[in-house]
Amino acid sequence: MYNKPKGTRDVLPDQSYKWQYIECVAREVAALYGISEIRTPTFEYTELFRRGVGETTDVVNKEMYTFEDKGGRSITLKPEGTAGAVRLFVENGLESCPMPVKTYYITSAFRYERPQAGRLRELHQFGVEIFGAQSPETDAEAISAASAFIERLKIKDVRLEINSIGCKTCRAEYNAALKRYFRPHLDKLCANCRTRYETNPLRLLDCKEEDCKRIAAEAPSILDYLCDDCKTHFAAVKQLLDEEGINYVVNPRIVRGLDYYTKTVFEFVSSAIGAQGAVCGGGRYDGLVSEIGGAPTPAIGFAAGLDRLLLLMEATGVEIPPRGVTQIYFAGMDAESRKKAFSLACGLRKHGIRAECDLMERSLKSQMKYADKTGAKFVAVIGGDELAKGETNIKNMADGTSSAVKFGEIYKYLSTRL
């Protein structure tokens, strides 16, 4: 007996339609915004994430699944989607395409951390990355797409929080201010934060330890240190969101957990699933393309955790459209009848009708029980008499009525009733 690895999940037949629904909504939203799908490898060279995500992040330091392949190269299962998307953009020459280049992906990602509700070691993301545009309208469009995705899933009580973490110029001054503030508190900070104090002070605002959170609550606000360009950009983003009726709260403590972010950052947050409340997040990362080896290219993106979204939908009673049920079931009474049932089912499937027949050589009684379990809307029994007549009685399982229909006219009959 083998069990699935800790922190992973099996998606069973009676659950997979929920995932398909969420993914379908994601693709519909992407199409509305003119965003095209990309697919990147499940694993990349480790250096991509070290340079792209950041050496000082928890993702790189603690959570990556890294191993050597048979050629001695360091390989990592992707812990997030952006770095791979940027690598794809650069390696495949998309820099020469008309800008902006709008991409999306639906992918698995892998992080080694303690499994809990809404946070597994294999997670699933819908992500959007927009390359080549630096206007505030681009930020507002990314946020609008994320908002539309959540709204189409009919999820309520999700709060949009936004912030600006500035550019390299104003960030340097803010980091200095953070170090001045945290210096008297160093002995009260956790070991990780004492390291962050030296390597990346901005990450001090992202610690989940209660003592560190309490100290960080009184830290200076990044919004007081933004340069004129970053202030103007953030003000324009807010104005665009206001004009489009997208409600938001400015939260100066949002810094996101990855080092590549600049200027606008945002999260969609819910309190319905406990501490793991962020169901979607992203921001601008204008320096990442050049960091990975491409020409300087502004970019912005977001990722939504499908696992958390599904958990949130279940917790808040969001109704997911039921999976498609069998539209007609053909029951065969003997070997020849089963062959005809198989032929009829195959023919209807070519016309887009969900048809099933017996594959288990069951008794007629057992076939009828199975048809009921599948939720079949119509059932047709085929035996010797039906074969001789070239027709069968089709029973409507909802009202119990039945009609005699020639084999060659079954599609025409069903097409007016399904």
- Name the CATH class of the largest domain: Alpha Beta
CATH superfamily of the largest domain: Bira Bifunctional Protein, Domain 2
Terminus-to-terminus distance: 43 Å
The CATH topology name of the largest domain reads BirA Bifunctional Protein, domain 2
C-alpha Rg, in Å? 28 Å
Low-pLDDT residue spans: none
Number of strands: 16
Identify the overall geometry: elongated
Binned, the helix content reads 25-40%
- How many separate domains make up the residues? 2
Q: Would you identify the CATH architecture of the largest domain?
A: 2-Layer Sandwich
Strand order of the largest sheet: 1-5-6-11-10-9-7-8
Major pleated sheet: 8 strands, mixed
The overall average pLDDT, rounded, is: 93
Structural class per helix/strand content? alpha+beta
